[in-house]
TrEMBL record:
This is Teneurin-like YD-shell domain-containing protein. Transmembrane segments: none annotated. The lineage of its organism: Bacteria, Bacillati, Bacillota, Bacilli, Bacillales. It comes from the Bacteria. The keyword Repeat applies.
Length: 201
């Protein structure tokens, strides 16, 4: 991402240069997103006096509201049409439950490091996740019992990630830091993509 600074505001451009993300110069909070070429704002984010997000508003002024209790804990998300999705947050601030007006609910469980380990959907189908010592995902078990695996290998100039699907098909994905500090993503199928400045500048 490329950063631009001004006296009253700061912004960054997304990787393809088509979106400008405005930031509060004092807090760094994302305040709005606009089309880089036209300048038209398509998303605006509002915060309370303590810096907690309270609403997301689109270009049509449709407002998605985040309902909070007196301590700031999120209780629900209110859609522009008034539909209310109830949130359950534990003492550690982790989202553990989501329930909509149709009676559908989702449950999440975490390990002691705060990483998601178990996800249960409305049909009571369970997905499970495992991580390495760095907190990076290594395994995802699907409700049907299939296992998806990720292995990471450090190379001389980047990282090679190998993805194995439940049918034991593999895909290799490599990120290399090239001269100038940019990152190039390379799929072993031969496709590659230059992602620009790896440091975000």
């Amino acid at each position: 991402m490329r950063a631009t600074d001004g006296n009253q505001s700061a912004s960054v451009m997304n990787d393809d240069g088509l979106e400008r993300i405005a930031l509060d110069p004092e807090t760094g909070r994302h305040t709005e997103s606009a089309h880089a070429l036209t300048g038209h704002t398509h998303t605006r984010i509002e915060y309370d006096e303590k810096g907690r997000a309270t609403a997301i508003v689109d270009k049509g002024e449709n407002r998605l509201t985040i309902e909070r209790d007196g301590d700031g804990k999120p209780l629900a998300i209110i859609a522009p049409g008034g539909q209310r999705t109830v949130l359950t947050v534990n003492a550690a601030g982790q989202l553990t439950g989501i329930a909509n007006e149709m009676g559908e609910s989702y449950r999440m469980e975490y390990d002691s490091s705060g990483l998601l380990t178990r996800f249960t959907d409305p049909g009571r189908q369970v997905s499970e996740y495992a991580y390495d010592g760095m907190g990076l995902l290594t395994e995802a078990k699907t409700p049907a019992g299939g296992i998806k695996r990720l292995t990471r290998t450090k190379t001389a100039d980047g990282t090679l990630v190998t993805y194995t699907d439940p049918n034991n098909r593999t895909t290799a994905y490599e990120t290399k830091i090239i001269p100038g500090g940019s990152a190039a993503d390379h799929y072993r199928s031969g496709r590659s993509q230059n992602r620009g400045d790896a440091a975000g500048g």
